[in-house]
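Recall the central idea of this unit: under ordinary conditions, the amino acid sequence of a chain determines the structure it adopts. In this exercise we apply that idea directly, starting from the sequence alone.
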Amino acid sequence: MTNGLHGVIPYIATPLRADGRVDRPVLTRLCDHLIGAGVQGLCPLGSTGEFAYLTRDQKAEVIETVVGATAGRVPVIAGVASTATADAVSQARDWAALGADGILAVMEAYFPVPETGVVDYFTAVAEATPLPVTMYTNPNFQRSDLSLSAIDTLSHHPRIAYLKDASTNTGRLLSILNRTEGRIGIFAASSHITVAVMMIGGLGWMAGPSCIVPGQSVELYRLCRAGDWDAAMVLQRKLWAVNEAFARFNLAAAIKAGLALQGFDCGAPVPPQAPLSAAQLDQLRAILDGLGAL
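Accordingly, the structure predicted from this sequence is:
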């Protein structure tokens, strides 16, 4: 199902109950809602899914629930992230066994890692399962990020098929596209102007805001695919307010608050993350109301 992965692939929020267990009924309803809105895939355990704050058991619950709820309707790209290569490999194998269709590979780092170590990490994840791998690069949060030369090297691996870039540098994306010569597909993040990324050859976007504006995001993707760039930019300008809020507020807190306004009580973000303040919630409510998302 991941051959030709494309389109709007939301980073799904992780609904948690007060006892810390994953709220499976809410997560199942959310998956149904997003698929019904027309998204082309789902990504549990992305940044907005709070992968950095969850236990291994919680992560397994998330993957199992999303795979079951999706029931093959769209591909499930499961997040794998660790500071240790062996643990990342173990996660990839577990998520594959639970039925994931692809892997989103993130490298966490406490100490800086040389480029050879970065390449080795992603290579090990790619070789852990038969699933296609999307590499994740985020220079703002990762101590040891993927350089252009590392991306070029990894693009030759037969199972490394995509890259999700969360920088704010669209020029970097064009450099990657030129350098890898079609060997990997490029997905944008909420930090990019997605219409611009689509214009230079991107395949779509993997991003948290699509959780709370899925229908509008799918329409934006349709306009881009149709080459109706004028109409796409009109919609992009409206939707950019969501991206701006996402950048101002805590990522998970903003999406969980937005989903709560839409009837999906996902609980609070995992401490020490803070929920939105009353004033921030009012701002988010006004944005979503203006977009017809409430």
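The mean pLDDT is 95.
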